[in-house]
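ERR on first pass: missing label on line 2. Operator R.T. fixed the label and resubmitted. Corrected input:
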Amino acid sequence: MPGPDLQRCEDCGSAILARRLLCPVCGSRRLAVERSCGDGVVYSTTTVHARDGAYNVALVDLAEGVRVMSAVVGVAPDDVRIGMRVRARDDGERIVFHAG
Amino acid sequence: MPADPLRGAVAIAGVGESRLGEVGPGVTPLDLVAEATAAALEDAGLRKADVDALFTASAYYGLPAINVGEHLGIRPRYSDSTNLGGASPVSHLLHAAAAVTAGLCDVALIVYASTQRSDGGRLRSVVEEDPREAPYRPRYPVSMFALAAARHMHEFGTTREHLAEVAVAARAWARLTPKAFARDPLSVDDVLASRMVSSPLTVRDCCLVTDGGGAVLVTSTQRARSLRRPAAVLLGAGEAHWHRAIAQMPDVTTTAAVDSGARAFAMAGVGPADVGVAQLYDAFTINPILFLEDLGFCPKGDGGPFVAGGAIAPGGRLAVNTNGGGLSYTHPGMYGIFLLVEAVRQLRGEAGERQQAGVEVALAHGNGGALSAQATALLGTEATL
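pass 2 clean. output:
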C-alpha cells in the first residue's frame, strides 16, 4: 500500500513532503512527484488523552527519508514503540500506519 | 577578535508587569499593555513621550504595533512586530539593540500582554491549522513537545522523574515569589500522578494559562546610566529557527538554541560557566532540559541527570527560572517578556527571597512555536562591560 505523496529533487536527490516549488535543500525547481512505498519506522510517539478516549499520534520516518506526522493504529496507543516498523494504509480519510 | 559593536551598546533601563493571574471580564490585552508600560516607565524614570520605538507581538491583534501605538498614544519612528511566538520579546531585544545602535530610535518599548485565562482558558493563538497534521488531532502545542520528550527519553534514558524535577524546581522558586500564580507544594510524585495530557507529559508538565503583561524599556547604555535604576546591559543576543512543523524538525532532541545560544555567547564573550541565573522558557518540562543541553550547560543527552536531585531548584547548582517560570509564575500565551523582567531583577539584586547572590550575568532564552524559534540574550551588570 503506497504512502503519502512526496517529491524528489532531480538535482540533489532529496525527498521532501509534497508540495513545494523550490527544493528546501538546494533551491532547485526540478521537483518530480513520487509516491512513498509506505514502509516506515516510528521516530516518536505520544498518546493523546481526549474526552472521547486516548489515541496515538506518531512521527514516522518513511523509507524514502521523509518524516511525517501520522497515527499508528491496530495496537493500543501506549503500545506503539519508537523503532517499530510500520506500513501505510489509507483508512478512507487519511493515511495511517499499521505495525509490521 | 574585535568586540561586536552591539556588545554593551544598549541596556534595559526599566521593567514592569501588569496585574498577573486572572484579571476577570472586561479587561483587554491593551489594558494590560498599558499597565505594564506604566510600570516600566515608572521603574526607569522615563516618560511616555520619551518612547520612540515599539516592539510587540500578539495573539490578539493582527497589526499589534499599530494597536499598541494608538492605545498608548505613542507615535513611534521605529516599529517591529516580529512574531516568533513566545521567543518574540527576546528577539525584539536584539532588534531594538540594532535599531538604537543605528540611531533609528532612542527609547524602545518591548511590550506584550494577554487575557487568555479570563477569555476562557484555552491557548489563544493566531497559528494556522496545518493540513499535514490536522487529520491526526495532535493537541497543539503540547503533543509536539511530547513527541520531543518521548524521543529524548528513548535516545538518552531521560525519565518522567527528570521531567517532573523541572516542574518541582519551578514550584519551589514560585514559593519564594509572592506574585507567582501557583504556590502550593508540589512533589515529583504529584507530577507523576497528575492527569496525562499527551504522554509522557501530564498537566503538571505543562505551563499555566494566565492573564498578564510585561514591558521592557531599552535605550543606549550611556543614557541608561543617567536613569533611575542600575542598567542591565545587553552583552549578547542571537536568534535562530529551522522549522515550523515538528515533523520538519531535523532532530527533535536538538533545537535551534544551538545556534541562537552560540551567537549570543560569541557576541557577549562569555560562556555558560559565567551565567549566574538562567531564565529558560519552560512551556513544558522538556524545554529547560533541551535548552540546558543546547546552550552548553551540559552535553547533549545529559539534561535529565543535570536537573535531577533539585539541581535547578533553590540551592541547586544552577538557578533556573528563579520566579517559577511559565510552569508556576505566569504564562499568558507567550512567556518571553517575563524572562527578561526576571533576568533584570536578578541582576539588580531586587528579587527578594529568591535573589541569587552576586549575579553578574543573566541568560534569558525564549522559545516559540513547536520548538521552532529560539532567541537567547545575555544581560550583565556594569561590571561585566
